[in-house]
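The records we work with from here on pair a chain with its fold. Here is one such record, which you should read through line by line:
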Amino acid sequence: MLALYGAEILLTWTVIAIALVGIGSIVLARLSEDHSLRDAFWMGLAISVALLEVWNLLLPITPWATILLLCISILGILANRAVLFGRFKLTLETSRWLFFLGVALAFFLAVRACGPCQYYDTGLYGAPAVHWIQTYPAVPGLANLHGRLGFNSSVLLCVAALGQGMWKDLGFHLFTGFLLSALWATLLPACARCVRGGPPSPADWFRGILALPAFFWTTRSRIVGTLTDEPAAIVCFIAAGILFQELWGTNDENQEQAHAPQLVLAASLFSLGVVFKESTAVFALLAWCLVFRAIWQSRAAPEKRRLHVGAALLFSAVLVVPWLVRGIILSGYPLFPATIFGFPVPWRIPLSAAKFYSLGVQSWGRNQDDPSIDIHGLHWLGQWLHSAVRNRMAFQVPVAISFAGLAIGLFLRFRGKNRPACPGLALLTPAVAGILFWFAASPDLRFVQFAIWTMAATLGTWGIVALDSTGRRWHAPVVLAALLMSLTWCLISLGWREPIEALRGVRQPVPLPEVELIVRHTVSGLAVYTPAEGSNCWDAPLPCAAYFDESLRLRDETSMRWGFTAEGRAIEFQRSW
């Protein structure tokens, strides 16, 4: 029975993938005829998210939103059917075994996606946020009900769009596993070229290193729930891989403009990473600037170059601008919980409460294992470092790869006669800046996967390329063995049984848990549901708040559609943090 439902999820993912390819092909066909199915898929995802953002500014996410996307995809498939079918046929003919390996990984993920939701933040604010999205357009001042409902991630819009029809209220089972399956479609060909012992490109090694976190997420990490960290990291990985490949090819005189559409795609995906997870902003912004420079300095004709620059600006704007507007509607702050650029709207969450949420995010990153530690100054650093160094996949392995690549690259660069150009090292700028921003803002390791693994892949590839310059070919098997040992080191760590045990007794996708609720009334008389125990509302009736604020009131007594205001007297919340 579990395998049957896994097959149904896989079939659903296939339909979604085809739809996104159709949507993306409409855009990429206007830029170039030379684009792959993978490029069309990722561009289709970016455009679909932008459409959902605009839709939810005006309307709730209902089956009509999903139908609109399907109709657009059908138009794209019909308009570009010859190219798309040709690309699909070529994929089957050239790498049939890779195709079936990708299907096997996707099926494995689909089976895992049937399991129960054990992600705490889904019950805390993810599932309630999706409930609001499916019931109303963006609600002014929703963060006054519960501050985390103002954490504006477009992942929640995607989950809401997937939770329609036969998957009604089950969209949280679909999204993360779907993106992981799509990530493997990009990584597997690169890994195959590295393993075969042929002449893999630096971009192949870059993606081969990124296969380590991808495999760990596939087998060990939670994929059921309203997760935002992994989806943001995945789109950043895809964009970073494209940018790395294009930077390394800048010295090739034959690459004048053939890959400019891929740079436009990279710019769109870096913007998509921001709207998925605000913590990617510094990394994505600096990487976006590198993309912009690469387009502007390309050897394309001036009119083509202007077209590609305009496309990169346009597609980034259609993603980021509606996202910022939605953030202002939800909380009064475009980058909430950051309090900068606050708008003087009547529903804005009080500044004191907004600062408290911002401090809470920072506190969580610094002292989640021991709340008694003072988060000010550097008192927290010792305990944090003790906890961080024990994390194999998020700290030990990427740091080891980074130092190994750096040491090899520097040693051979200063000792050897051959000094190959390393334009891909430019990616270190956004990676290091992203790590520094993360460390200052909220140094929980799950918030920095995109930056720390980009740094590891960049420096690791530099070390491998430096070894290539020596003219010896013995190093490739050694590198592969080292990567395999690193992956094994992560997989045999504690907790490897949890993903298997989570599926024990499961026969179909598990719905969200039900919680006992109590009704409390604010000073204005508004009835608010609160959990009888704990702080998770899950999919409770609206409005449900994890923490009760007696000053909460409706802006319009006739409907919750017009939002909430409050004075920020959430005493229970402040005591609980």
Residues 251-258, 570-577 have pLDDT under 50 and may be disordered. Residues 54 and 282 are 24 Å apart (CA to CA).
